[in-house]
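Field reference: sequence -> structure
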Amino acid sequence: MGSVGEKKWFTTKGRDRKLLSVLRFKAQRSQKRPSLPFSSFERRSRFYCLYPFPISLAQVSKLYLTGIMAAIGNRGTVTEAAGFNAEEDVKRLRGAMKGAGTDEAAVIEVLARRTIAQRQRIKEAYKQTVGKDLADDLQGELTGNFEKVVLGLLMTAPVYDAYELKNAMKGAGTEEAALIDILASRTNAEIRAITTVYIKEHGQSLEEDIDSDTSGMFQRVLVSLLTAGRDEGNTVDEAQAVKDAKDIYEAGEARWGTDEVKFLTVLCVRNRNHLLQVFKEYQKISGRDIDDSIKREMSGSLENVFLAIVKCLRNKPAFFAERLYKSMKGLGTTDSVLIRIMVARAEIDMLDIKTEFLKAYGKTLHSFIKGDTSGDYRKILLELCGE
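Structure field:
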């Protein structure tokens, strides 16, 4: 198990090592140990991750100074709970599971109002107090979609993403939507953290599982995204943007058939600002929006993954708002999509997702969830959504 100062998780030189050892000692003294307890999914690897790799010295300092309890984003509906006391939360959760039945309201009030990092402290305190995993005990008490949300909330961000990706490829068939939603929307650092968790959990790489569960150009796009090699700078090369737009046009609209590799080369590698310029140049050259051309030239999962990449580059919260809308519109609800987005984005950008949802569909996300779900499942989703 790696603690805050364990050298193998950090890239450090010379004098930095001394500071790391000091931070490690202080963290252990003030927090006993800054490790995260395990859900049943996490337990085998003894792997913990709140921050992507390699973690910087500045991030180590932040872990100590903040007590690793702050939210992982700054546009979420879930924020750090004031006056947080892990021991008190453990008492409430133990009380909620005592006797016949379960006090689901108490479970919601505690877990849906704490950051991921605070929930890790609760898990640690629970294990120290009870000698059992909180996730295992809750799993024995809860059922259905409500259980899925609660167990998802107990995982760290990369562990949850890895868990969702594995589930998407379990058994017969593959839930391509999960692969697309996650891999098209995560940063390089987030993808590196996911792949590290995945191989430690399952003994083989995420790429190996994707290779065995997908095929063709769709597989190649996913593998490209897995390399976490996108340029994340801000530089826009005007001449290259024009060339990229021409290359995409000549690979699609301007020819019989489609050279999908050209699309992959541009859409999976260039930085966001550059690609936004490419999209403008493409409109000038082709007279069409890049989205329309992708729809005309491709189909199925390949179309969906390229569209997801373009939409995330333009406006990630709008992409998630659309995915949420489609998960609930019409008859029935695609609960897997609804749960995944609500759990994963609650403390990152849910405020922006709600704004985009209202702008696009004229109704609040809150009202959609309220009308499409029921019971404790509805209550916990509404708590994550916020008013």
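Note: The chain is about 65% helix and 0% strand.
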